[in-house]
Amino acid sequence: MSLQGGMTMTAEGGAMHRAGMAGGTRMLIDTQGVPDVPVRGYGRSSRTNAWGKAVIGDVSSYYRNKASIDVNKLGDNAEATKSVVQATLTEGP
């Protein structure tokens, strides 16, 4: 068995994620502690971890990016009040 991926940690939390370009731009998604929420950027979807965090690795610096909750895969007992966010990432913390 082999694994490939990365881990992103910040003061707000962190998550493991699929491998992307080394040193590439990533977006940390926070669902305020709600686990197992399906989120996606422009690539394949992933799910938030036990602390409600997910990392999307397919984003660009200096261009508008979009992250969304995949409402088609959202559980029946969950509701998304804001399912899409957009951000232009210009620099790190």
TrEMBL record:
One of its GO terms (cellular component) is cell outer membrane. GO terms for molecular function: fimbrial usher porin activity. One of its GO terms (biological process) is pilus assembly. This is Outer membrane usher protein papC. It comes from Serratia fonticola.
